[in-house]
Amino acid sequence: MTILKYIVIIAIGALASILSNRGIAVFNDGFRAIVPQYYDGQISRKEMATISFSISFGLVIGFGIPSSIGTTIILIHALLLTTDIIGTWCPDSKTGMIMSGVIGGVYGLLLLVGLEVVVKLFNYLPYNFLSDLGSVSAYMTIAFAIFPAVAVAYQHNFKKGAITAVLTVIAWFLFKKFGTFHISADRTFSLNPDGMAMLVGVIMMLVFAAQVKGDGNANANLTQVFSGKLARIRKNWLLLTIMGGLLAMGTSLAIVAGDPASLAAVSENDWSNASMIALARAIGFVPLVFTTSIVTGVYAPAGCTFVFVAGLALHNYPIVSLIVGAALIVIELLLINVFAKGMDKFPGVKDMGEHIRTSMTKVIEITLTIGAVVGAEKIAAAVGLVGIGAMFVIGCVLLNRRSKKPLVEMAIGPVACILFGLLVNILLAIGLVSVAA
Questions:
Q1: For residues 84 and 127, what is the distance between their CA atoms, to the nearest angstrom?
Q2: What percent of the chain is predicted at pLDDT more than 70?
Q3: Best label site of 143, 172, 300, 367, fewest CB within 10 Å?
């Protein structure tokens, strides 16, 4: 199984870099709009590569890798944002394509092995704070259940958001108290209260969004204008299909995770809730991925991210997840036109995607910051410095906002917690503090 993991991560890194090199698919949503400018002759290869580095590298260092430390699971941003960079920095030629594949495969392997090495290195520290870092994402699963209510409030109004929030909380309580069913004397079946509460919120979100009607013309015209872009995407269906299958398989093997919330759930072996989180996230990405693909002719290596749902739902069956993930990408490519026309009939559902992403981001930002404070305080308590951990993290978060090159809000909390843990170990090494009894 270990050898299979290495093969899969190498294949993902290599193919994702090749897709980026050929301008077929990139992971960074903002960069997707830049790629066609190179092929239209508006910018040079060097300019495109520079843009790719500038908008992705900070997320890799400040978000992707810090979010992955503490587990042997790679947050997909740490891998695919880097393959965006690798692909564009390699020449636009057959040699460049091969070069990007080799570099991308090596990077994927180093990233996987590197995380394992980091986990082992923590054992050599005067105080191993790896378990305390788990607190950073400890509240992610439960907090994530409230994002539909926040999305409803953003898209509609506070009242509808509050109604959704109340129903979400009630659902959580009911499933927590009555969600366990006895199948036999020694077997029980439990419905996860976090996941079921989020499902209720998602249903309410869809109900409110579907009430907004449209005339059914705008996106239909859009697909006609950009028919050449769609043809370009479909021409590369085989590579995209293989990519989707590999990502689903990688998720099934617990090598990669599509988002911090599902990563946190998987690290706690809560696969069912991780699947629910990934599904809700994928719904929010459909409008963004489809719309940008229609306009640019560049797809996303993970598609609308349903491949992560497949991998999580089939975590015991990596080969099956490979097939299902590939099939999902084929279905997505077939449905782009249908989606574009259908979204005009329900523009509220189309607009919902933007609000889902906004609400998810806000929930993750707040949850990771709170979790970072809790984690830092656990580290501080271990050396008898209760209070300083919270001050350190909060100070880093607020000072980061005034920095000339700030880290993304959701990244600064985890980074601050890691820095505090290293600082405490330095103090232990020089004898200024000692581990509390």
A1: 37
A2: 90
A3: 143
Name the residue among 75, 76, 84, 79 with its Cα closest to residue 55: 84
The percentage of residues in the chain with a pLDDT greater than 90, rounded to a whole number, is: 42
Q: Are 72 and 6 in contact (CB under 8 A)?
A: no
Rounded to a whole number of angstroms, the distance between the first and last alpha carbons of the chain is 41
- pLDDT value of residue 166: 96
State the burial class of residue 365 (Cβ atoms within 10 Å of its Cβ: 0-12, 13-18, 19+): middle
- Work out the pLDDT band at 429, boundaries 50, 70, 90: very high
pLDDT in tens, 372-396: 899 999 999 999 999 999 999 999 9
Whether residue 217 has pLDDT greater than 60: no
DSSP characters over 32-56: HTTHHHHHTTSS-HHHHHHHHHHHH
Assigned token pair, 370:
């709170």
Task: State phi, psi for 188 to the nearest 5 degrees.
Answer: -130, 160
Residues 255, 73 contacting (CB under 8 angstroms): yes
Q: What is the DSSP letter of 184?
A: E
Q: Report whether 266 contacts 257 (CB < 8 A).
A: yes
